[in-house]
Write a structure and sequence with these properties.
By secondary structure, the chain is of the alpha+beta class. It is 38% helix and 19% strand.
């Protein structure tokens, strides 16, 4: 009886999202008109109590799906992973591409929208020929400790790579958080992690692309060969110049544990300055990893971390303890951080530290999908739920997306915000003030990273404030994920104002998110000179959609 009381009495996503009452009325009206009076009961459950629906129906299926996927990946990695078989798969894809020569058809991959991590729809794929890649290019091809690289196919995900590398004492120089994120999506789109202040964005750890061009030919693009222009044009191009067959990525030695340090700041100016100062040190011994969590417009917690050999804290670290934050029953990380840092001084002058397992660190935000789980299963961070079912979360994200109706997708689009805005680090305080005024979503995620000045150019480049003799500029990714609390929030107009602000700061928007810019605004934000030249040079104009058409435009549900 107690269990069911807690199960049904927790605050629902329906109550947490700002304007779902009106959305629900519209959905019910459309369901009444189309299906009669029976279906509104089901609609009510799916809208008001989707967390219960997920627990009862989707979690069991999700667990089975994840087990099946894991076993499949293990078998593939142990049986099917050879360079020869990779070449066979590439040749199979080349046949499909060459068949479309002279037809005028645009080419896209066969990956469905529900299998991606984006809230966008897949309208750009309508009328295109979908090249079969989703079940073919899913293997780790090779690893070289001498060259410090690993070569993988584009549908390999972060979970595969971390499970493969960490037991061997290696890791990616930049290993993004969520298991389901794929190499191809992170390279052709946007990828970042807390080591990006040293190693750059995910695209910057790639040393070679194996690319299939629109005519079915395959080339290898590196920074130092004849395809250097293609090498720098591919990142953020979303498969609109060529199709990536494999990528060779930088790896670094790692240790089994991480020492994490926490400091609290009570002004956004001091918080932003601390992020900048720590990032510029590039001290891999104490701050190989840097991130921040903002809990209001005026407060934040800065975390720095580095590899250590042992779970036993150094005796000099007073109060430092071992904490396996990855265990199924542990509180969600963002709430753990807030509670841990609460007793600290607000000027950042003192700190508290923990020792955590490396893989637990890499996936510290995975259980709560940063903090989005509170909207999916609002009671999932309750102690009773964590101990009983914490091992089963997060639910399989593609499965959740596949079970959403168009009305539910519309509801999440209009009343939920998932965005990453990349701005020069000097603009942290001003950017947070604007975001607070427009959406007021907390926590906010802060991840410093480098933007490089490449010899050939590319979609991203340092701002005009970067000294001419410098090849890099420090930016920060500010992530906002949640339900806006501002009463005047209207997703279209609000996000367009945020995008305009970011353009004024010469910043960038993560294009996995819903993008509201028109074509001219998109070309202002992203430097298209190299992109346009490579599209023309490598005959991509007739074979692939344009990046704007794949990434921009508000979904219509």
């Amino acid at each position: 009886m107690i269990f069911f009381f807690f199960f049904f009495k927790q605050k629902t996503a329906y109550e947490m999202l700002r304007s779902l009452v009106g959305s629900e009325m519209c959905i019910r009206d459309s369901i009444n008109a189309e299906y009669g009076l029976v279906w509104p009961i089901i609609a009510d459950i799916l809208i008001r109590h989707r967390g219960i629906f997920i627990c009862v129906f989707l979690l069991p299926i999700s667990v089975l799906t994840n087990v099946y996927a894991y076993i499949t990946k293990v078998l593939l990695c142990t049986i099917a992973t050879t360079p020869a078989k990779h070449q066979e798969r590439v040749e199979t894809i080349a046949i499909s591409v060459k068949k479309q020569a002279g037809t005028g058809n645009k080419l896209t991959t066969d990956r469905p929208g529900w299998a991606t991590m984006s809230l966008k729809d897949q309208t750009h794929k309508k009328g295109t020929v979908k090249i079969p890649m989703r079940t073919l290019l899913v293997d780790i091809v090779s690893m070289s400790t001498d060259a410090r690289t690993i070569t993988v196919e584009p549908l390999v995900n972060m979970g595969q790579i971390s499970r493969y590398l960490i037991p061997k004492g290696w890791t990616l120089a930049v290993l993004p958080e969520l298991d389901e994120l794929t190499v191809g999506g992170l390279l052709m789109g946007f990828g970042i992690e807390s080591s990006s202040h040293i190693h750059g964005l995910f695209q910057d750890i790639c040393v070679e692309f194996e690319v299939m061009l629109g005519d079915g030919s395959v080339v290898r693009a590196r920074a130092d060969n004849e395809y250097a222009d293609l090498f720098y044009a591919l990142p953020w191009s979303y498969g609109t110049i060529g199709l990536v067959m494999s990528a060779t990525l930088k790896i670094i030695p790692c240790k089994p544990f991480i020492r994490m340090s926490y400091r609290r700041f009570d002004t956004m100016e001091s918080f932003g300055k601390a992020i900048e100062d720590e990032s510029r040190k590039k001290d891999e011994k104490t701050a190989l990893f840097i991130e921040g969590l903002g809990y209001s417009a005026t407060s934040g917690v800065l975390m720095t971390a580095a590899f250590v050999d042992s779970p036993k804290p150094d005796p000099k670290d007073k109060g430092c303890k071992y904490n396996n934050i990855g265990l199924w029953h542990k509180p969600w990380f963002y709430e753990h951080v807030q509670k841990l840092a609460a007793p600290l001084k607000g000027d950042g002058s003192d700190e508290i530290c923990e020792i955590v397992p490396l893989r637990a660190y890499y996936h510290r935000h995975t259980k709560a999908i940063f903090w989005e789980m509170q909207y999916i299963i609002p009671f999932a961070n309750q102690a009773w739920f964590r101990y009983l079912l914490g091992w089963a979360i997060p639910p399989n994200i593609p499965l959740m997306k596949a079970t959403q109706t168009n009305s539910m997708k519309k509801m999440w689009l209009e009343d939920f915000c998932v965005q990453d805005m990349l701005v020069p680090v000097k603009d942290i305080a001003e950017t947070v003030a604007v975001m607070d005024k427009e959406v007021a979503i907390y926590p906010m995620w802060f991840c410093p990273h480098l933007v490089y000045r490449n010899p050939h150019g590319g979609f991203l480049k340092p701002s005009k404030h970067c000294p001419p003799d410098s090849n890099e500029e420090l930016f920060v990714d500010i992530g906002i994920y949640g339900a806006p609390s501002r009463k005047n929030y209207e997703h279209n107009s609000t996000m367009r104002r945020l995008e305009e602000f970011v353009r004024q700061k010469e910043g960038y928007q993560g294009l996995y998110a819903v993008c509201y810019m028109n074509r001219g605004e998109f070309r202002t934000m992203f430097d298209h000179r190299l992109y346009d030249a490579c599209r023309k040079k490598y005959n991509a104009v007739e074979r692939f959609p344009e990046a704007f058409d794949k990434t921009c435009g508000v979904p219509q549900y």
